[in-house]
Amino acid sequence: MHVFVAVLNWGLGHATRSIPVINQLLQRQVEVTIGSDGAALHLLKQEFSTLRFVELPAYEVTYPAHGSLMLNMIIQLPRLRKTIRQEQQQMKSLVGQLGITHIISDNRYGCYSESLPSVMITHQLRLLFSGIWNIAATVINASLRHALQKFNQVWIPDFGPTGITEPFTRKVKTAHRYIGMLSRFSKNTAYEVNDQLIIGLISGPENQRTVFEQNLLAQLMRLNQPAVIVRGLTQTEEVRVQNGVELINHLSASALQDVINHAAVVIARSGYSTVMDLYVLGKRNVILIPTPGQTEQEYLGQYLREKKIAVVQHQEQMDIEQALKQLPEYSGFESVQDEYLLEKALNEFLIA
């Protein structure tokens, strides 16, 4: 049995949530090959240095520093479709070359086979739109359903239909199953919290990744208390200190979990993989800054703010000092983890 795990390089979230899937495959002594590109590929090579890796075509999605994100994405659609066709052609070759028997794809829509069991991991069975872009929702979501139908199964990293992914799955006829929240972390109560330490987690595509980092760094330098920024740059291990703020390019999963556990406050994007990590770790004091124009992150931010779980601010009005004062009004995340759903899904998939 040989499973090919294909991972989207769109920030690091898809790579990090693939780690528990790969670990469960390895526990079953299944042969695993990993396909990705860019920073996601580099991160997975660090986590699984003994496995075989394949570089897949790069999606190369960029987010504008200013202007309409949705318009920018529509402009990039022809190139994205070309990339999906390229990875489908590469997938056909790899199946024969490597003797692949099963395919698990995290949001890479060209990584499937008509002759092999193929599963898609995604938390979006329909895309959310706002404002004028609602007129495009029907056409784009019909294309998304068509793309998902090329896979034998669709797995959603959540606990059920009433979970946090509910708006992305509501009234969707595409067959799917829930596999529990996926996180590279596991709950560990044996640690002490530094009640002054703030950690900032930077992630996501450029140019917004850099905009967020620069804004956060400027504000943390003014606070005059211990702070660390993990920059989400996997290519180097560089560490430097700027005006009292420690900047770390990248940490392994275990080292990052230690830093997050010890931090009194976590500041991050409201991406779905980040939210899953925070749930699993049960972090109490969290400030979230959605990527501007990314409707998924904006929805998750609104959901968590309305549930009084996390302080959420728009990037344009980001004020960390004010957010810190608001934290006592919010409950934080309750630790949740259920590996049984993923275990059962894998068991059934691998005997197909």
Folded structure, characterized:
- The protein folds into 2 domains: 2-183 and 338-350, Rossmann fold, CATH 3.40.50.2000; 194-329, Glycogen Phosphorylase B (Rossmann fold, 3-Layer(aba) Sandwich), CATH 3.40.50.
- Helix content is 39%, strand content 18%.
- The protein has helices at residues 13-27, 38-47, 69-98, 137-148, 166-169, 208-223, 253-262, 272-281, 295-306, 320-326, 339-350, and strands spanning 2-7, 31-36, 52-55, 102-106, 118-121, 153-156, 177-178, 194-201, 227-230, 239-242, 245-248, 263-268, 286-288, 311-312.
- Strands 3-2-1-4-5-6-7 form a 7-stranded parallel sheet, covered by helices on one side. The protein has a 7-stranded mixed sheet with strand order 10-11-9-8-12-13-14, with helices on both faces.
- The mean pLDDT is 91.
Question: Helices, strands, pairings?
Answer:
Blueprint: E1 2-7, H1 13-27, E2 31-36, H2 38-47, E3 52-55, H3 69-98, E4 102-106, E5 118-121, H4 137-148, E6 153-156, H5 166-169, E7 177-178, E8 194-201, H6 208-223, E9 227-230, E10 239-242, E11 245-248, H7 253-262, E12 263-268, H8 272-281, E13 286-288, H9 295-306, E14 311-312, H10 320-326, H11 339-350
Parallel strand pairs: 1-2, 1-4, 2-3, 4-5, 5-6, 6-7, 8-9, 8-12, 9-11, 12-13, 13-14
Antiparallel strand pairs: 10-11
Protein traits:
single chain; 352 residues; alpha/beta; Rossmann fold; 2 domains; seven-stranded parallel beta sheet; seven-stranded mixed beta sheet
